[in-house]
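PROTEIN DESIGN WORKSHEET
SECTION A - STRUCTURE
LENGTH: 251
TOKENS:
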């Protein structure tokens, strides 16, 4: 198992880039990524799959919150998505390949593979393969993670030289109403950590005292967390977490 580079533990990680809608820097946009690079932060981005199999940098499954378009990312082609302007900015939805060219190893990059199964299940593989292919020649510190353990396991087999991790939570019924109680309990225990080849987790910053997190920290596993939104919350999170993913303030 390859370990997480130390750069992911020494620089705060800008959640979806250093975004600020009031300044025209929309999350996961070229402007937000450039601002994070200029400030020396690590960067976290989200990837999904276009209809024609391209890895796209976009968080939501639906387009309506951040663009003037409707429908889902999955039902649009790469070309259609590239024509969608992000609300309040001059940027359009980028591909992963475009983001890699922009970052070009200047700062560490943390990629979250968005669940394509719908229930964090086994219906995965196409997005993982697209991301693995896109990362083949990338030079720079990079790590890949997902809430879906199956996605992590698949990607780890395709790109064993890239460190992988699990995005984790307490998985309460309130926050995860579509998951079965059995699935929520299983995921809350972070039981898939070893079988996926994970070398780190990124946990809900409000739930860092969860027993499963404490157990992994005792083993020396790096603990990242999401999403810190104030200096006070950062101080609290760093009592357990080795690093933070942040937004809406300067870490």
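SECTION B - SEQUENCE
RESIDUE ASSIGNMENT:
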């Amino acid at each position: 198992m390859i370990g997480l580079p130390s750069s992911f533990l020494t620089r705060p990680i800008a959640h979806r880039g250093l975004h600020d809608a009031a300044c025209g820097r929309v999350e996961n946009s070229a402007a937000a990524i450039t601002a994070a690079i200029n400030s020396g932060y690590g960067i976290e981005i989200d990837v999904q799959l276009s209809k024609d199999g391209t890895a796209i940098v976009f968080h939501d499954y639906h387009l309506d919150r951040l663009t003037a378009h409707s429908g889902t990312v999955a039902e649009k082609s790469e070309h259609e998505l590239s024509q969608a302007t992000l609300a309040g900015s001059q940027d359009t939805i980028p591909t992963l390949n475009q983001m890699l060219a922009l970052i070009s190893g200047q700062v560490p990059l943390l990629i979250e593979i968005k669940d394509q199964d719908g229930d964090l299940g086994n219906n995965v593989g196409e997005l993982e393969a697209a991301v693995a292919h896109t990362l083949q020649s990338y030079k720079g510190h990079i790590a890949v993670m997902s809430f879906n353990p199956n996605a992590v396991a698949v990607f780890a087999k395709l790109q064993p030289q890239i460190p992988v991790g699990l995005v984790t939570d307490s998985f309460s019924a309130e926050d995860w109403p579509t998951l079965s109680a059995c699935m929520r309990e299983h995921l809350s225990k972070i039981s898939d950590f070893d079988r996926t080849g994970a070398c780190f987790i990124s946990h809900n910053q409000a739930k860092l005292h969860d027993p499963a997190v404490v157990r992994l920290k005792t083993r020396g596993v790096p603990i990242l967390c999401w999403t810190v939104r104030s200096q006070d919350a950062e101080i609290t999170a760093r009592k357990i977490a080795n690093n933070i993913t942040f937004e809406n303030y300067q870490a």
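SECTION C - NOTES
The chain has one domain: 7-246.
Residues 52 and 77 are 5 Å apart (CA to CA).
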